[in-house]
Amino acid sequence: MENGLIVSKIRNGTVIDHIPAGRALAVLKVLGIRGSEGIRVALVMNVESKKMGRKDIVKIENREIQEKEAELITLIAPNASINIIKEYEVVGKRKLGVPEKVSGLLKCPNPSCVTNNDVEATSTFITVRKSPITLRCAYCETEIGEEEVLRQILS
Ligand code: CTP
Ligand code: ZN
């Protein structure tokens, strides 16, 4: 249900729904979509939602979301759902699962952490809380929360 269809339905592709209001751009960033690829994308931001007050929606034509990408989306949108669309019908709907660990995406804020000093060490965070997200560096145990995750993804 979508307030008078602010954006039309798509024929084939993926709809990421129930994104916290204002975070659609961060979701695109996580997916590596910058616009220059030429993929047709629709963003719906800050629209009314029965369940969450306000929400964002991202619609991507002719593109599937890989499991790894879906996991990363949970870092900023833990309750998002991914809808697979085929010939205008929702043929699949899944809730996302927060990953047990996140490697390579985020930087440890501790300047003396080995991941900031040894080019061979890949940053790795273990999930200690899912919503809102809390991650702990696997090397130095520094914890980062949702705010820091968002800041890094959007920077
Ligand atoms: N959607 C779309 N194009 C389609 C079909 C659906 O863009 N051809 C969008 C809808 O606008 C909605 C999302 O995909 O944002 C999920 O569709 P649907 O399952 O029909 O909506 P709801 O029942 O409201 O979903 P939920 O129960 O997950 O809230
Ligand atoms: Zn660290």
TrEMBL record:
Could you tell me the keywords of this UniProt record?
Metal-binding, Pyrimidine biosynthesis, Transferase, Zinc
Which is a Pfam family this sequence falls into?
PyrI_C
Q: Which InterPro entries match?
A: Asp_carbamoyltransf_reg_N, Asp_carbamoylTrfase_reg, Asp_carbamoyltrfase_reg_C, Asp_carbatrfase_reg_C_sf, Asp_carbatrfase_reg_N_sf
Name one molecular function that GO assigns to this entry.
metal ion binding
Residues that bind Zn(2+):
C108, C113, C137, C140
Which region is the signal sequence?
none
Query: How is this protein annotated for GO cellular component?
Result: aspartate carbamoyltransferase complex
**Entry's Gene Ontology BP terms:** 'de novo' pyrimidine nucleobase biosynthetic process; pyrimidine nucleotide biosynthetic process
Q: Which cofactor does it need?
A: Zn(2+)
Q: Which residues form the Aspartate carbamoyltransferase regulatory subunit C-terminal domain?
A: 101-149
- Family of the protein in this entry: Belongs to the PyrI family.
* UniProt xrefs under PANTHER family: ASPARTATE CARBAMOYLTRANSFERASE REGULATORY CHAIN
Q: Which HAMAP family match?
A: Asp_carb_tr_reg (MF_00002)
Question: What is the role of the protein in this entry?
Answer: Involved in allosteric regulation of aspartate carbamoyltransferase.
- Its recorded name reads Aspartate carbamoyltransferase regulatory chain
